[in-house]
Write a structure and sequence with these properties.
The protein has 2 helices and 3 strands; from the N terminus they run βββαα. It has helices at 57-78, 85-103; strands spanning 29-34, 38-45, 48-56. A hairpin with a 2-residue loop joins strand 2 and strand 3 (48-56). The termini are far apart.
């Protein structure tokens, strides 16, 4: 169960992420799967799987709400929307296509 706020304490500090005996993962992509009972995420680093997470749908929904609040906080603080990977890919593709067409 998610029991801490994505906002941290009054000074913006978060709980420590170093927990002895619990592996930590950095990932820059993921894939997902579903069944009639639960869902899974495969964490990817440079398109290579590094961990698999299984969770109940209620947990997935709670994680979605937690992450949405966290992203909303960052977007509110910066007054800038965060780009998804799909948005970033589209923007970079459009930029490169324009750059190539103007160099001809």
């Amino acid at each position: 169960m998610a029991d801490r706020s994505p906002l941290g304490d009054a000074f913006g500090r978060q709980e420590p992420t170093n927990i002895p005996g619990v592996p930590g993962f950095y990932f820059n992509g993921f894939s997902s799967g579903v069944s009639n009972a639960d869902t899974q995420l495969v964490l990817l680093l440079d398109n290579q799987p590094i961990a698999k997470l299984h969770m109940a749908y209620a947990t997935a929904k709670t994680l979605h709400q937690f992450l949405s609040e966290l992203i909303g906080t960052v977007e509110g603080a910066t007054k800038m929307p965060m780009l998804s990977q799909a948005d970033m890919d589209a923007a970079l593709k459009a930029y490169m296509e324009k750059k190539v067409s103007t160099e001809k």
